[in-house]
Amino acid sequence: MRKILIVLGGVLLIGLGVYIKNVFANSKKSPELKTEEVVKTAFVETVKNQIVPIIIKESGNLQAKNKVELFSEVQGVLQSTGKSYKPGVRYNKGEVLLHINNEEYLASIKAQRSSFQSLIASVLPDLQLDYPTSYGRWNTYLQSFDVDQIVKSLPEPLSDQERYFITGRNIYSTYHSIKNSETRLAKYKIKAPFDGILTETLVTEGSLVRVGQKMGEFINSDSFELPIAVNASMLSYLQIGKEVMVNDLENTFSVKGEVVRINGKIESATQTVQLFIELKGSFLKEGMFLEAQIPVQEAKESIKTDRKLIVNNNFIYIVKDGKLTLEKVEVLHYDDQSAIVRGLKDGSNRLIKAIPGAYEGMSVKLYSSNEKK
To answer: Counting CB atoms within 10 angstroms of each CB, which of 119, 132, 163, 368 has the fewest?
Structure first.
């Protein structure tokens, strides 16, 4: 009997506990969740289609249009020209850039001239006897001959017989040998081929110069070329004489240039073609990294927009009835930061600033860039 009472008491206690739990559970009311939709601001602009110029932007390093690398064709010790041979020094056309000591070679040429003078003197008696009409001209030539001066052209023979006679005495071969030596003598002095400036010097006064040694670089600092590579698909819009605006990457200056050459070869790997833009300006320096803006054609009924606003390559968000709507467009051209598109209707409101997490049908409130603040 006692065990029965204990069991019944336990059951009653469990039942009472369950009842009390249910009472407390039912007494707790769940708070009502209030969801408030966050409406983001859409920065928009009213579409106004117009003619938009398509401009190719390409960059490259500036090069001097006229540039000469200075090499020695003779050997000798470098002498002073009276003007410093250092980078940044300017020379006028015809001024001596480099003078290599030529005393030894000049002495050998004078010896050749002297021998040639004796050779002509030896044939004068025979000329007087066999070709008296030509004797006077050869005698005058000999009298004016000077071993310290460049050898003058020989008198023209009056007949084939006279020509054969002169040839047989080795006068022509000796003459051409001396002229060849005189040509080489001129290479001991290197003159400026145009007005310009030294940009590199690799030798100094008193140093020994060897044949084939590079001695420096000389450029014309008044005219430059900017080589750039453009897509071959744009080749039909490019022509020699087209005006181009060129600026540095920091946009601290801009200069007007002109397309002067277009390469006839397309690079197979990149499918680009190289063109050259001529530029002039005292502020230009070889090696500058510049950007060219080349107008190629005009896009009608189009707008220009930030390329980040293009969705899936051919859609743009517009705001219609307070909601975002994807509108299909045709992308005509991309550059680094913008895109030219066609297909939006005049008067529609297009996004001009990306909305994080944007999706079609998203509710937004308008902020038009056309509004007056």
So the answer is: 132
